[in-house]
Amino acid sequence: MKKMLKLFVVVASMAMMLSLFACGEAPQEKKPEPAPAPKAEAPKEESKKIKVGFVYVSPVGDAGYSYAHDQGRKAVDALDWTETAFVESVPEGADSERVIRNMARKDFDVIFTTSFGYMDPTIKVAKEFPEVDFMHCSGFKKSENVNNYFGRIYQSRFLTGMVAGAMTKSNKLGYVAAFPIPEVIRGINAYTIGARMMNPDAEVRVVWTKTWYDPALEKDAAKSLLDAGCDVIAQHQDSPAPQEAAQEAGAYSVGYNSDMSSFAPKAHLTSAIWNWAPVYVKTVEEVKNGTWKGDQSIWWSMADGVVDIAPMGPMVPEDVKAKVMAEKAKLVAGNDTIFAGPIKNQKGEVVIAEGTTAPDGDLLGMTWFVEGVVGTTE
After folding, report:
1. Coil, strand or helix at 109
2. Count of C-beta atoms within a 10 Å radius of residue 97
3. 339 and 353 in contact (C-beta within 8 Å)?
4. pLDDT at position 46, please?
5. Collapsing DSSP states into helix, strand and coil, what is residue 15?
6. Run of H or E including 46
7. Is 151 helix (H, G, I), strand (E, B) or coil?
8. Given this model, what pLDDT does residue 359 score?
C-alpha cells in the first residue's frame, strides 16, 4: 500500500511539471546583438600645398626672359603638391618692393624675384618676413632667408659667338644690350671670345638701351648697328625686335632667352637659351622637405641643363655646326675654359694670365670688356 502511494505521488508530480511546461512560454533563442556601426573617420587633412610666387620684369608673352622663367614656373605648377602665382611687367624699384611684400603677406612659402633690379627690394622684404624663403635671380646679395641664383649663360653666349664669327662677312657683329652690369658684360665678352676663335678679325659693337624690355627701342638700336655695317645682330634684350630688324635688313641674328627662330626664320642663326625648370623644381622640393638653406649662391651650368643653345639654322654650314657642338660637348662635360688666359682687355693689357682661369668671383664682378669689343661699359 505504501509503495502504491509513493508511486502515485511521483506520477502526480511528473504530471504537474509537464502541465506547467506546456502552459509556459518556450525559451526564445537569444539573437546576437548587432555589431556597433563603425565610427565615421574624421576626414583626413589634405597635405598643405607649397605656395610659390614669381615676380617678372616683362610680359610672359615676350618670348624672352620672363617667358623663359615662366616655362620654369609651369614645371613647378605641374607638381601636384604646389600652387603657383606670378606678377608680370613689374618695374624695378619701389613697385617691385610692393609686389614682393604683398606676396609675402599672402603666406607664400618661397618667392622667386627674377630681375637684377629686384635685389635690394628682395633683401628688404626678406628681413620683414623671416619665415618666407626668397630666391633672387642674377644678383649677388644674400641673407639667412635669401639665396641668389643664376646660370652660366656666358657658356651659351660663347657658342653663339662662334656661329656669328663664322657667318659674318663684314667682320662687324652688332650687340643690342640692356644695362652695363656684370651679367651682361660677361655675356658680351664670352660672345666675343667665341667669335674671334672662329674669326680673329671679328669685332663686336655694343649699343646700350638701358632697358630690359622696349621692343621699339630695341629695334631702333639694332637698326643703328645694321647701318654701321654689322651683318649679325645679337642681343641681351627681352623681345624679338632685334631679330626682326636683322631679317628686314637681310642680315643674320642671334636670339636670347628662348628659341627665337619663328620670329626671323631667314635671319636666325641660333639663340642662347634658358631652361629654369631644374632650378625651380629642385628649390621647391627642398622647401617642401625642409632642407632649403639660405645664404647661398647658386650658379648652374650647361652641365646641369640650365643653359643651352637653340638648334642652328639651315644657313649654318655643317662644319661650323660640328665645331660648335664639339665645344658644347666639352662644356656639358664640365670643361669650361672660356675665360682661360691669356685674355686681354680693350687696351691690349693682359688681364687673365696664360695658364690661369678667371675665378667665379672675378666673373661675377666683371666690369671690363675683352679685346675685340667696340663700346664702353657705361
Report:
1. coil
2. 18
3. no
4. 54
5. helix
6. none
7. strand
8. 96
Q: What is the pLDDT of residue 16?
A: 39
Grid cell, residue 218, equals 630695341
Is there a contact between 273 and 307 (Cβ–Cβ < 8 Å)? yes
Pick out the chain residues at pLDDT < 50.
Answer: 1-35, 37-45
Query: CB-side exposure of 262: number of CA atoms within 13 Å?
Result: 6
| CA distance readout (Å), 293 to 151, 286, 289, 299, 309 | 19, 8, 11, 15, 31
Q: Go through the chain and tell me how many residues it has.
A: 378
HSE (side-chain half, CA atoms, 13 Å) at 75: 17
Task: Specify whether the CB–CB gap between 142 and 200 falls below 8 A.
Answer: no
Q: What is the pLDDT of residue 62?
A: 74
278: burial class by Cβ within 10 Å (0-12, 13-18, 19+)? middle
What gap in Å lies between CA 5 and CA 16, rounded to an integer?
Answer: 17
Q: Which of the 8 DSSP states describes residue 117?
A: G
Cell numbers linked to 137: 635671380
Determine the residue type at 377: T
Please write the tens of the pLDDT for every residue from 217-256: 999 999 999 999 999 999 999 999 999 999 999 999 999 9
Residue-wise pLDDT tens digits, 82-91: 999 999 999 9
**Preceding amide of 342 cis, omega within 30:** yes
Taking Cα atoms as reference points, which of 256, 281, 236, 275 lies closest to residue 135? Answer: 281
Residue 365 confidence (pLDDT): 93
Q: DSSP 3-state assignment of 238?
A: coil
For residue 157, give the nearest of 258, 234, 58 by alpha carbon. 234
Contact 262, 108 (CB under 8 A): no
- Model pLDDT, residue 61: 87
DSSP state of 132: S
First to last CA, the chain: 147
Which of left, alpha, beta for 171 (phi over 0: left; psi -120 to 50: alpha)?
Answer: left
Q: Could you give the angle at the alpha carbon of 81 between the alpha carbons of 77 and 87, nearest 5°?
A: 35
Asked if residue 188 lies in contact with residue 175, where contact means CB atoms within 8 angstroms, the answer is: yes
Report how far apart, in Å, the C-alpha atoms of 68 and of each of 239, 257, 276, 280 are: 12, 6, 7, 12
Q: Whose CA is closest to 208, among 190, 189, 181, 243?
A: 181
Predicted local distance difference test score (pLDDT) of residue 47: 72
